[in-house]
Structures are given as C-alpha cells and as structure tokens.
Design brief:
five-stranded parallel beta sheet, Rossmann fold, 11 strands
Length: about 550
C-alpha cells in the first residue's frame, strides 16, 4: 500500500509469534513498504527491568526520538495498554513534543483501560500476562510496582487532549481475558472493534485482524481529519499541556471528605448549582482538592461520556498566566475531546490556519459558538476546573465572567469549579454557587498534608529506589508534628529530605525521617547545619 507514515509497534512483553508472517513488524513492513516501522517492547528483559513505568516510557520515547530524526511523518502507534505512560510523557516533555504533535492514531490491542468492582489493576495485569503463555520471571516481579501506577496513568490518559484518534481492538471469545467494560477507554471519539477470537490472537496479524489494521491505518489520510489535526497542532504549539490539572485517584480515604461533602455533592448532581468555589489557605496550593474532585468524576461510570477541561494558572509561566492562555487551552481541549464539533467551524478553517488568527476575542467567539452548538445535545455534560485563579496576572475577572456566561448558556449542563486564594465573589444570580471551606486545623488540612507527602515520596522513588515503600512511614511521621503546624512546614521538610537523602540508603532515610524539624525555625536551623561548602545554592522554598 502506497502510504508514507511512521508505524510504531509497542508490545507489552516479548511474545513468540506462531509464524514470521504473523509478526506485527513483518506484516506492516510488507503491507506498507514506504512507511518507517519501529518495534519496541515495553517490558523487555533489560538490565533495568526493575525500572518504573515512567523511566521505561522515557527510554522508549528517547529511542523513538532518535529513530525519527528530522522526520515529520505522521505517527501511528499500535500498542499494548502499557504505552499509556509513553503517550502521557510525550505531551509533558518538550524534547518529545514532536512525537506528541505528530501522533495521529493509537490502536490498542486488547488493552486494559478500566477496572471493575471485581477486577482491580493487579488482577487485570496478571490476567494479561497469563494470556501470552510461558513467560520469564521479570514481568511477574514487577507486578507490585506496576499496579500502583496504572490507575493514575490511565486517568491522565483519559484527560489527555491531543489530536490523535483512538481505536480499541477487543476480544470477543467466550474465554475472554478482559471484560468488555475493561477494554473501553471512555473517550468521546474512540472506536471499538470487536473480534471473535482469543486475546493472544489479536497480536497475530492474520484474517480479520489484519484487514482491520490496514483499514484503520489508511483512514488516517482522511482530509477532514487532516484539517482539524493541523488546527489542533497550531493550538498545541501555542499551548503546552503541562498546565492541565492531573487527576488524583487517591489510594486512601484521606480526601474522601471533599467529594462526600454537601457542597461538592450538590455541585456534581444538582442542575441548579453551577459554580463551586474552593478558597485555599495560603501555601496549600489548589491542586490537592481540585485534582481529587476531578479524579472522583473520572471514577464515576455515569460520567464517562462527560468532557473534562482543566487549567492551572501559574504566574511564573508565560503560557499559563493570562486569560488568553486559558481560552487557548479551553478551545484546544474542547476540540480534542469532541472532534465532531469541528464541522460547526470548518468553514473558518482557512482563517484559523493563518498567522495571527488566535486572539483573546477570536478564541472567546469560537468557544461561545462551539458551546452553543453543544448545548442542543441531550447527553451533553461538561466540567471545567480552573486551578489557582489568583495566579492569573492578566484579566482574572474576565476569565471568571466568561466562564459564568457559559454556565448560564449551558442551562445546567456546564459545571464550573474555581479554586485559589481570594477568589472574587460571584455576582451572577442565574445559578447557585457554593464553597468548600478549609480551616487551618481541620481534618481536610491533615488530609492535604498526607497527600503531599505521599506524592513527594513517589517522585523521590523514581530517582532513588531506596524511597520505595516508605510512603506510610513518611505519613506516620506527620503525627510527630504539632497539630497547628503550617502546610508550608511539611513542604519544606520534604524538600530538605529530597536534598539530604538523594543518595542515601533506606536505613539512613528512615533516620532522617525521625529527625524532621517540628517548626519553621527548626527547619532553617537544620538547613544551615546541613549546608557545607559544596551546597551553597540550596533553595529552601520548592
């Protein structure tokens, strides 16, 4: 077939095919001789087989980046579910932005996208491994490390707004490894193709599977998709995705008080409540509560067809400090999540492709028009979570007024959450607006401290494996702090541990946890006592 593209095969573990002709790379090379074909094994038997998913995804992206060179070929990824992390990382790392922007389609082969009440991530992971027959020991040794990451990665992928299409190849045999609800991602625009075969047959490119692979690859040449994709590429070049809010799927009940509270419950379920305010205490940061609410929405089966848009203002980031930045991101996320809306503005595609087309007023006009078209749909629901509104240094009131206008326009189908310090009181009278209140000594503040400690320990474990398994230990040490300890003390203590424990063994890290300062003054004293002539540039405020 005369199609020029970059076809990337990402398998989960090495699987011996029945014949060479059934091998994915061999099949693709023969069918698409003009295309570049790469093959990667996400859980290969390398010396670093114990690496976490984040590190493995970076290694995969680095290989792909070197393979592409200066190529601008469209990328089509044929992957196992473990390629989630690589796709998420590609949108967050500037070095791999070209990979994210040029990926036009992802085809998943019997991938686990969701859990059910009876089948958790550990169960699904082991089921998928057992389906491929005899395996070496290394994938099994990674189970306890991988399942802890899969849920968060899946949530991040579901909120990812890029210009690629998603197709799921699902098994339909009576001995299915995955339940149907486990293999459907829940994106608005995904395509699901069912085959009457066993799980392992999905990776043998013969018969109906082979025909459908070719069909899906060829469909990426669709001219309508190309126009939309080019516009989304322009938006993505202007709008980095690093300021989208990452959903928090808490593995403890520490933040359930937020989502179970009356204000949040009413905001989620009562059509007369359109706006929720979360006024944050100084130093806490809005991401904790807002991210947990976003995670809880993603966990609700009835909300899988909803659209989630998020934005985190940052006064120190030129791409995340103004109303223009927010509206640009809102427009990109909306079109990415609901590409069918493009037909309403396709007549203006030439204008949108021109230089200087995107201004604050142009973006607002586009968003208003798209929302007007969307409101007429019966099953439409959209949640917009705007984090750290106080860090919008240009036109903060304009952002709030624009979103309130959309709340009014949507008539109960658009929910707005605003979080940050000193958020102006809403003056609108067409909907109810509620508040989530956090006091300095509340149970909620304790939960936020615990969340921050757990999140930091997980990040530290990426660079130093000695931190692995110390989340509960670190949280237990919070109890040694006075009840009225500020959130800032917890943040600075973790920064100190990151610096002093960077190359420490587990025994030494536990000792450092025991010696954490119990006051801001004690923190500074310990910092000064730890600094030597080689560490004069230590920054205490992360």
């Amino acid at each position: 077939m005369n199609y020029h593209a970059h076809l990337v095969v990402v398998s989960g573990v090495p699987v011996q095919q029945a014949t060479k002709e059934e091998d994915p790379k061999t099949f693709l090379t023969q069918k698409f001789p003009r295309s570049l074909v790469d093959e990667f094994c996400f859980l290969d038997n390398s010396s670093g087989s114990g690496r976490l998913l984040y590190q493995r995804s970076k290694a995969l992206l680095e290989q792909l980046w070197k393979s592409r060179g200066a190529s601008t070929l469209p990328i089509i990824i044929l992957a196992h579910g473990l390629a989630f992390e690589a796709l998420v990382s590609a949108t967050e790392e500037p070095r791999y932005q070209d990979i994210a922007l040029n990926t036009v389609k992802v085809i998943f082969f019997g991938a686990a996208h969701n859990t059910t009440r009876n089948r958790g991530w550990g169960h699904l992971y082991l089921s998928l491994l057992s389906a491929v027959g005899s395996l070496p020991d290394y994938p099994l040794k990674l189970v306890h490390r991988i399942v802890g990451e899969l849920e968060d990665i899946n949530a991040s992928f579901r909120t990812l707004s890029c210009s690629f299409d998603v197709t799921n190849f699902n098994e339909g045999h009576k001995y299915s490894v995955l339940d149907k609800e486990c293999s459907i991602l829940g994106r608005q625009d995904e395509i699901n193709v069912n085959f009457d075969c066993r799980h392992e047959s999905l990776w043998r490119f013969t018969g109906e599977v082979a025909k459908e692979v070719c069909k899906q690859v060829i469909q990426t040449q669709n001219s309508e998709h190309l126009v939309l994709r080019n516009i989304l590429r322009r938006l993505s070049l202007l709008d980095s995705q690093t300021h989208q809010l990452k959903p928090l799927l808490s593995k403890t009940d520490s933040l359930d008080w937020v989502c179970d509270g009356e204000a949040v419950h009413a905001w989620k379920n009562d059509p007369t409540v359109g706006i929720l305010h979360i006024p944050e205490p100084s130093g806490v940061g809005a991401s904790g509560i807002a991210a947990h609410i976003l995670g809880s929405l993603l966990n609700q089966a009835e909300e899988k067809k909803a659209v989630f848009i998020s934005f985190e203002f940052d006064k120190n980031n030129i791409r995340a400090q103004s109303s223009f930045s927010f509206l640009l991101s809102f427009c990109r996320q909306l079109l990415s999540a609901l590409p069918q809306l493009f037909e309403h503005i396709s007549s203006a595609s030439d204008l949108l492709s021109s230089v200087g087309a995107f201004t604050t007023q142009t973006l607002w006009t586009l968003i208003h028009y798209l929302m007007t078209s969307l409101v007429s749909e019966r099953d439409f629901s959209l949640y917009c979570i705007i984090d750290s509104v106080d860090e919008c240094i240009a036109s903060q009131s304009e952002v709030i007024e624009c979103m309130e206008e959309l709340v009014k326009l949507a008539n109960g189908k658009f929910k707005l959450l605003l979080s940050g310090i000193n958020i102006p009181e809403s003056k609108c009278d067409f909907t109810q607006h509620l508040r989530v209140t956090i006091t300095p000594h509340s149970e909620g503040m304790t939960a936020l401290k615990e969340r921050y400690v757990r999140e930091t320990v997980r990040k530290l474990a990426i660079d130093n494996p000695a931190w692995y398994g110390l989340e509960d230990t670190a949280v237990d040490h919070l109890k040694s702090l006075p009840l009225d300890s500020p959130y800032l003390l917890v943040k600075r203590n973790m920064a100190l541990l990151e610096w002093t424990g960077r190359h420490s063994i587990k025994k030494d890290i536990k000792s450092k946890l025991d010696q954490q300062p119990t006051s801001i003054e004690g923190f500074y004293s310990q910092v000064m006592g730890s600094i030597d002539s080689r560490h004069r540039e230590f920054v205490t405020d992360p």
